[in-house]
């Protein structure tokens, strides 16, 4: 492979990793937010007011763990 082709390949690999990472982080934020909205509909005490009900919400955990897995992959 000549150097110009390798440089282009590195560029596209980096671009794909950046876009994929952004999509993954964005979806993890959406999962956490959906979990918190679900709790708000149930009438649970909000975390800012001293509530800890979000710790029992599976969507919130899915969002948290998926956002942390991006950090581990990097």
UniProtKB/TrEMBL annotation:
Keywords, in A-Z order: Membrane, Transmembrane, Transmembrane helix
Record-annotated membrane-spanning stretches: 12-31
Membrane topology: Multi-pass membrane protein
Coiled-coil residue spans: none
Domain of life: Eukaryota
InterPro entries: Mg_trans_NIPA
Subcellular location: Membrane
GO MF, one annotated term: magnesium ion transmembrane transporter activity
A single GO cellular-component term on record: membrane
Signal sequence, start to end: none
UniProt record similarity statement: Belongs to the NIPA family.
The protein's name: Magnesium transporter NIPA2
Native organism: Paramormyrops kingsleyae
